[in-house]
Amino acid sequence: MKDNRVVIASVTNEKQLETVLKYQDNIKAVFILTGNFINIKEYVKLYQSHGIDVYIHVEMIKGLKLDDFGFKYIKQMIQPQGVLTTKTSHVKLAKKNAIFVIQRFFLADHDMKENIINTARVSQPDLLEIMPTITSFLINSIQSQVKIPIIMGGLVDKESYLTQALEDGALGVSTANEEMWRREFTKFLHEH
């Protein structure tokens, strides 16, 4: 991921594929949450040809069998910088195949927070993504127990949600909100 950027573009439909390229100077990386096993390699190569790191959400790619051979296919044929998953079994398969893996969690209450901590201790992904972004005030309490870097994602309706997540310790924020892609947030990093 580009070190001096903080916005991660979550591409959720084909219309957004080209839009990301308009704002590539503001984008840290791209999460692809659309496509199928036929066109995903093309999407990955499109962004990589522009110097953008790409992570694919494996459960969102239609037709991709998510077993050991599927992860070998991802590593050898699709060749993203890494994968994104909500499933611990997929974290294990990605790690077995030496693929950088981000485990995505949804946080709505205290029990879910404890589940994130307990699951991450076992699965040991390379990075955690916690959703929604407005729960970023919990970054320190989670990170102090799992020692895994955290990004936030989802429900980035206001610039203040993104900047608050960064102030709370997030390495970046993923969003499908194209308005956030348009904005330059590296200035924020230099001020804090």
Automatic annotation (TrEMBL):
Keyword Transport appears in the UniProt entry: no
Keyword Transcription regulation present in the record's keywords: the answer is: yes
Q: Which UniProt keywords apply?
A: Glycerol metabolism, RNA-binding, Transcription, Transcription regulation
From the UniProt record, give one GO term of the biological process aspect: positive regulation of DNA-templated transcription
Which molecular-function annotation in GO is an example for this chain? RNA binding
Coiled-coil intervals, chain numbering: none
Q: Which InterPro entries match?
A: Aldolase_TIM, GlpP
Give the protein's biological function.
Answer: Regulates expression of the glpD operon. In the presence of glycerol 3-phosphate (G3P) causes antitermination of transcription of glpD at the inverted repeat of the leader region to enhance its transcription. Binds and stabilizes glpD leader mRNA.
The record ties this protein, via PANTHER family, to: GLYCEROL UPTAKE OPERON ANTITERMINATOR REGULATORY PROTEIN
Q: Specify the protein name.
A: Glycerol uptake operon antiterminator regulatory protein
| Provenance organism | Staphylococcus equorum
